[in-house]
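Lab channel / #folding
Pinned by the channel admin:
"Please post every new chain as: sequence first, then the structure tokens as a reply. Keep commentary short and put observations after the output so the thread stays searchable."

First post following the new format, from NK:
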Amino acid sequence: MIAEADKLKSRGVDVADFGPGEPDFPTPDHIKKAAIKAIEENKSKYTPTGGIMPLREAICAWHKRELGSSYEPKECVVSVGGKHSIFNVMSVLIQHRDEVHHPRAVLGELPGHREVCGRDAGIRGDEAGRRL
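Reply from TO:
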């Protein structure tokens, strides 16, 4: 993914590469200032598992404004990233002995996620001669 983003950038395409798991640009000043303000206000403790309500409300408002959705904050969950969210979903949905199919071009941690969740390794979609 990183190499593909680099190719696009070399052709002048404006790409935000999240391949390494973080943005490839400096943290914007308004975010730095908000983080400093939060620390000064002692907002530096663990938050509820699903995220703080003002953030969930802001996400739902943005999603409605930009995408026309109608999600409620109780339907919104904030996580530390995509891998974390995928792990949580797999932990809930995959049952012991379920066969898990996935394409080869997938997060490298996915097979490990299955095993940590106590599930069988399953068969990779491409190795089983199937297309997903």
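NK: Residues 100 and 107 are 14 Å apart (CA to CA).
TO: also worth noting, The two ends are 19 Å apart (CA to CA).
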